[in-house]
Amino acid sequence: MKLKIIILFLLLLIFIGGCGGETGGDSGENPVSDTRLKLGMQEVHFSMISAVNAWGFADLDEAKVLFDYMDDLKISTFRYTIFWTSAELYSKNNFVWTRHDDLINYLRGKGITLTVTLFGGHYVYDTPESSPYPGSLVAGYWNAWLSYIEKSVTRYKDRVHRWEIWNEPDFSVSGTGIFWKPTVDAVNFSDMLIATSQKIKSLQPDAAIVMGGVTNFNGYRFFLSSCFDRGILDYIDEIGVHLYRSNPEGPFNFIVDTTVDIDPGTAGVQSPTTFSEEMTSLRTFIDSYRKDFPIRNTEEGFHTGSTDILNSQMKYLTRMILVEHSLGINEITCFRLRAPRRSDYPAGATGDSSYAADIKFPGIIDQNADGSFTPRPAYYGIKNMAQYLVGDNIYFQRSLIIDSGGYTVRVHIYTRNGLPVIAYWVEDAINNDIRPENNIALTIEGIGNHSFSVVDIKDNSSRAAGSYSVSGDNITFSALPVTDYPFILIAE
What we know:
The chain is built from eleven helices and 21 strands. The chain is α/β, with parallel strands linked by helices. The chain has two domains: 2-388, TIM Barrel (Alpha-Beta Barrel); 396-491, Immunoglobulin-like (Sandwich). The strands form five sheets. An eight-stranded parallel beta sheet has the order 9-8-7-4-3-2-1-10. It has a six-stranded antiparallel beta sheet with strand order 13-14-15-21-17-18, with helices on one face. It has a three-stranded antiparallel beta sheet with strand order 16-20-19, with no helix packed on it. Helix 7 links the parallel strand 7 and strand 8 (238-242). The protein is globular, with a radius of gyration of 23 Å. Residues 1-32 have low confidence and may be disordered.
């Protein structure tokens, strides 16, 4: 058990140049280097023309109106996908860039930094579709892939520094590869990744290369090990990871990787029970191959099996963002912006099935029948939270887990112009009910003597902080309002 105790207190996580941590107990805390929260978004389908994919906007101005909603979210990074089939249209060597030029320039004009994902097989070279790799038995397929890579990088290297190669190459269902086709193959994927990276670096030597984000599903560690053994770490700059789970504070639990053991010294597999344990374990695993090798969160979001999810989505995403930032993940890439519509899919059983699968990853904005947009509660929650916690003068300091009156309260302390700005919530299971507010006693150490007010991020309404007493730099609130999504406590 000694090893387990040591692991639980390891804060080795170094994500994207930042680090952070959390501890338990009534007043436990862990100072970290000041880091600024950066919010990212992903909306892959709008880079495809509607004739290729029904998700695409026929009118680019409509896509731009949607992207304008990101302004109030203070989005600073965006994962943009150039699908091979969206660049080389319909026939061999017919490259059309107009749509990508327009959207990439529009996003860049907002001051947004892009990670561009290069991804996908192509039906004009191989039917049924398979994935390209050196040694592919499909005549001309590999060279055609390299041509697509060269043309993409050459065109956008003045606007794009970070290139992600592929997406979830480890993901399979019943033996069938979902993104790497026809079946998951770490060797062929690694060879493709290495050779593609070499091609990109020959065209753009200072480019940052991200390994296509892996899932956290059962077998992902084995897949990573196979890729590392193949030598990919010598050719990439970051490992992409996708951090899906059902509880923002909890472990990767959708399809649990049964090989992840946080205490090898104890009989049986000791699986992680918290997100912090998952990330510490992942960091330790990667360090065993290459210490401090950078990891990048290239995708995550709210996943649901229910349609009654609007409040659940708001609670999950706002808590997720804060928990991850407290552990040093300084750029949070949320999937996705617009919610799926049934009209985006073909009529019939195939369209029904595709739609049913996609609505499990709901967006934060609905598009109405007339083309207009209606933000969901999650949009407003993120928007209001960003108003107080995202900015050049706002820095994360530390996080606490405090037990108060039978409640486990998360407390995340930021400073804005030197004054504390504090997000806090009760750590309850995510559900769609809005928990009735409770008033709790809470002591927060080291935040100074100030007057305070409270903001509810759901609707940006104000609350009184209640009475409090001061002892040095410590403040004890006697009746602080709290619920199961973040309230913001602001020093005035």
